[in-house]
């Protein structure tokens, strides 16, 4: 997590547009929030401020869209038990889609093909 945090902080410093800055800030928040849940203490989270609302809204939207994307892809692959599909992986990364498909008993190549068409 420390290495990932360094990379994201560097990308945040190099961001040139507001949208890119928001995206990189959200990635930093994501690492800081997730690290303690995986037993890694990086640093104390910042005290909440109103500007964090925008980042939190961005994260919520990002993961909700990824969750919905995976559910739609599973539905198109005739996966009957959609309630078990709770994945929020980046749909642009085929290797992650392959892992999701295997985890849920979906034929991986077909799932990747459906995801490519949805993108």
Biggest sheet descriptor: none
Q: Mean of the pLDDT scores?
A: 89
- Beta-strand fraction estimate: under 5%
CA-atom Rg in angstroms: 16 Å
| Multimer state | single chain
Regions with little confidence, pLDDT below 50 for 5+ residues: none
Helix content: 55-70%
Structural class: mainly alpha
Kindly give the count of domains.
2
Global shape:
elongated
Our count of helices gives: 5
Order of helices and strands: HHHHH
Would you report the number of β strands? 0
Report the end-to-end length measured between terminal Cα atoms: 29 Å
Explain the layout of strands and helices:
Layout lengths: L1 H13 L3 H17 L17 H25 L17 H10 L4 H11 L1
Helix pairs in contact: 1-2, 2-3, 3-5, 4-5
Throw out a few tags for this protein.
119 residues; mainly alpha; 2 domains; 64% helix; 0% strand; elongated
How does this model look, in words?
This protein has 119 residues and is mainly alpha-helical. It folds into 2 domains: 1-46; 64-119, no CATH class. Helices cover 64% and strands 0% of the residues. The protein has helices at residues 2-14, 18-34, 52-76, 94-103, 108-118. Helix 1 packs antiparallel against helix 2 and helix 4 packs across helix 5 (108-118). The longest helix has 25 residues, at 52-76. It is elongated and about 45 Å long.
Short description:
With 119 residues, the chain is an all-alpha fold. Helix content is 64%, strand content 0%.
């Amino acid at each position: 997590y420390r290495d990932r945090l360094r990379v994201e902080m560097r990308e945040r410093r190099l961001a040139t547009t507001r949208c890119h800055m928001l995206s990189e800030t959200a990635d930093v928040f994501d690492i800081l929030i997730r690290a303690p849940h995986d037993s890694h203490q990086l640093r104390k989270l910042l005290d909440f401020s109103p500007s964090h609302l925008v980042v939190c809204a961005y994260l919520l939207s990002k993961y909700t869209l990824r969750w919905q994307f995976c559910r739609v892809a599973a539905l198109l692959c005739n996966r009957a038990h959609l309630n078990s599909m709770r994945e929020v992986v980046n749909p642009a990364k085929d290797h992650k889609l392959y892992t999701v498909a295997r985890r849920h008993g979906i034929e991986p190549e077909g799932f990747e093909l459906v995801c490519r068409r949805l993108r």
